[in-house]
Amino acid sequence: MYVLGPCNGIMCLYQPPWGDVITLWNPSMRRSRMVKLSETKPLQGVHSFVSVGLAFDPQNNDFLILRILCVCQTINDVPNHVEMCSMKSFGVKGFRIIWKKLKNEMVFHTPGYSCDAIIKGMPYWLPYINDIVLCQTLVRFDVGNMVLEKLPVPPVIITGDYKHCLANFEDSHAMLMWEKRVGFCIDVSVMDEEDGWSKKRKIGPLWEFDRILGCLWNGNIVAENYERNVMVLFDPVTNSIKATLRIDNARKGSYMISNYSESLFLIEGMQPVRRQDELTHDLSRFGDQFIIILTLGELKSPLINSVNWLRCWCVADVSSFFP
User: Which residues form the F-box associated beta-propeller type domain (predicted)?
Assistant: First the structure.
């Protein structure tokens, strides 16, 4: 089971590799509902898996689910099949929920089962394209025009000498980049719609880590160290480690972190989620933030017989969830 979000307070749970058993979940309201599966079937030898994205349309006050049928890496002449489901259709009596195919002429290879980030209600992917040579690009779903669009990436990524993470850094579209060596620094570049990418900050040198999970509201960076099996909270202002967190029996690479804000938004057809049976939790302090560690292996739908155990960090005001 994969967890995507939040997007305006809504989380999306689904089963890889084909994006099945999609469930929308509002943790603060303790309600969820399943979404009718798409009737589009992957083509054998053409599609390798589905990547899911979640978006919010503020003009129509509507949530959108996107499915990208990702073509195999050996295929460079078949555009990715992209389809969208609107939550507005849930509220129309007798209206059958449908997935609408979106126009797309791009061919790209997405490495993951979900979008890499959701920033200001729009999902972003960092796929590879075969443009003479294999290189990485940035793809965004433009909610206003309901199309996928290709955006540039910082030039240093194209060289392949840097690892990178797309994140919402201090409410800006940001790329966090670091060299593949010990004692590295993080370069933070932000994207402006008109001026493109510009370097905003250099952080470090830092303690060794293997991947960046994301950023908190205050700009603090959360990273994971596989060898020591710990999560590290970096303060980019003081260039220091504010806290570390170790969780017993954790699988490396199995965590995500979400900046969750309480939302009263309900989608037509959402049903109550039983707290005791459906959701278990631990509560830890991580620096000056509370981390809710949610164990989602118990959150099953009638169509799931067994799911992989997964933990999700939600940075939030815990009083609204657990009185």
Answer: 6-238
Q: Which two tokens stand for residue 82?
A: 């992209």
Please tell me whether residue 60 adopts helix, strand or coil conformation.
coil
Q: What is the per-residue pLDDT for 172? A: 85
Average pLDDT for runs of 10 along the chain of length 323: 87 90 88 88 93 95 94 89 85 63 93 92 92 82 94 79 86 86 80 90 82 86 85 85 78 76 84 60 49 42 33 41 35
Q: Quick one: which of 41, 4, 264 has its CA closest to 116?
A: 4
How many Cβ atoms sit within 10 Å of the Cβ of residue 85?
21
Q: How far is 18 from 50, CA to CA, in rounded Å?
A: 5
30 three-class SS? coil
DSSP, collapsed to helix, strand or coil, labels residue 277 as: helix
- Check whether the bond before 302 is cis (ω within 30° of 0): no
Q: How do beta strands 162-169 and 147-151 pair?
A: unpaired
What is residue 248's predicted lDDT score, i.e. its pLDDT? 72
The Cα 33–Cα 123 span in angstroms is 21
Is 108 within 8 Å of 137 (Cβ atoms)? yes
Structure tokens at 100: 């609408």
Structure tokens that stand for 60 in this block: 């129509």
In degrees rounded to 5, what are phi and psi of residue 86?
A: -95, 135
Query: In the structure encoding, which two tokens stand for residue 274, read together?
Result: 């039983």
Indicate the helix (H) or strand (E) that contains 56. strand 47-57
β partners of residue 234: 221, 241
Q: Which two tokens stand for residue 233?
A: 């909270």
Tokens coding 75? 């295929």
